[in-house]
TrEMBL record, chains A, B:
NAD(+) binds at G90, A91, G92, N93, L94, G95. It comes from Geotoga petraea. Modulates transcription in response to changes in cellular NADH/NAD(+) redox state. HAMAP family: Rex. One of its GO terms (biological process) is negative regulation of DNA-templated transcription. This is Redox-sensing transcriptional repressor Rex. The keyword NAD applies. Residues 16-55 bind DNA. Residues 79-181 form the CoA-binding domain. SMART domains: CoA_binding (SM00881). Pfam families: CoA_binding (PF02629), Put_DNA-bind_N (PF06971). One of its GO terms (cellular component) is cytoplasm.
Length: 213, 213
């Protein structure tokens, strides 16, 4: 049975709760509460309770949550009980920096392939043990290496063409770093990470708080 | 007068509409509609109209929007009529890749300073004309260079300490790439860009659609 439609911001917060619980666990904390987690994250306790309520009852009123159990449950909900094979598509500065980001492997995301159009990059190592391959070979390699997630860091003008190839070879999800909308069928998940949009969201807030003076 | 409280997802979409209008303009398109924009972005036309309605009446029913005018208005709303001086705080792989991202300058964000703790990096050029400086000098340099936005790409364990320094020297906004929550007073805007959280949001969707089978 599919979980009822969960709002996107709730899903992101679940991942943030999971990160928060992992930190509590590392600090030897056994029990927590919606209030404690909310305070750590700068949000409201009622928000934490509402988000978790989509998935059933976790804590006991007045007793709170068992950190281990809730953490395990969130890990399961977020699909993190397995490791995920990831491909970097576009091995420029940003693609390389992401591939080498320590947080990926730690969280169960393993870079197993990288692709680029630039002949000079092909054959170079992007992370230990993974050499950059020609993008022409992408369909075959994605299929043969059980890669379910692609991180898209190609230039804008190549974004849709590469996306179409990824769709053809059965990718399940795309993390889109290109500053453009990409189109994929409904059964392929797309998450956009556009930090220029985030910067503009920041300047909106700064500009509108200035108008407040 | 301060604009009424606008939901965060609306603000992000305004930035996306602005990007979409810029593209239409580049393609020589004069007029558009909520339907056309929505189709280009894979959302609903009613969403576009609702988001824009926070800021008044833009289009005429049945006639649509003048691309130039709406684009200009959104540019103003998003605080993009001026350029913004930006500092990169933490000049590792990710910080360097972001500093060199072509989309920044094109969108009015100018990297004018970069800081790191690593003595070996100090003095190196991060982008043409900008050398990496000691993080000890950050407060003075931020003040003297009229820097309003900091992009935070330091390790997690340094995140809050550096944030506190940035607050002290009068930064207006922080784009937080560190995988942790940072605390700042209400008048300092913080936007988180955590792509591991985005990946987990992706694996949630993939895992829950599998359960659907």
């Amino acid at each position: 049975m599919r979980t009822p439609k969960i709002p996107k911001p709730t899903i992101r917060r679940l991942a943030i709760y999971y990160r928060c619980l992992t930190k509590l666990k590392d600090n030897g904390v056994d029990k927590t509460s919606s209030k404690e987690m909310a305070d750590l994250l700068g949000i409201k306790a009622s928000q934490v309770r509402k988000d978790l309520s989509y998935f059933g009852e976790f804590g006991k009123r007045g007793v709170g949550y068992n950190v281990d159990k809730l953490s395990f449950k969130l890990k399961e909900i977020l699909g993190l009980k397995k490791n995920w094979n990831v491909a970097i598509v576009g091995a420029g500065n940003l693609g390389s920096a992401i591939a080498n980001y320590a947080g990926l492997e730690k969280n169960g995301f393993k870079i197993v392939s990288a692709f680029d159009v630039d002949e000079k990059k092909v054959g170079q190592m992007i992370v230990p043990g993974v050499t950059i391959q020609k993008i022409d070979d992408i369909e075959e390699r994605i299929k043969n290496n059980n890669i379910e997630i692609a991180i898209l860091t190609v230039p804008v003008n190549a974004a849709q063409e590469v996306t179409d190839k990824l769709i053809n070879c059965g990718i399940k999800g795309i993390l889109n770093f290109t500053p453009t909308s990409i189109y994929a069928p409904e059964d392929i998940e797309v998450e956009d990470v556009d930090f220029v949009i985030s910067l503009k969201s920041l300047t909106f807030e700064i500009a509108s708080s200035k108008n407040d003076l």
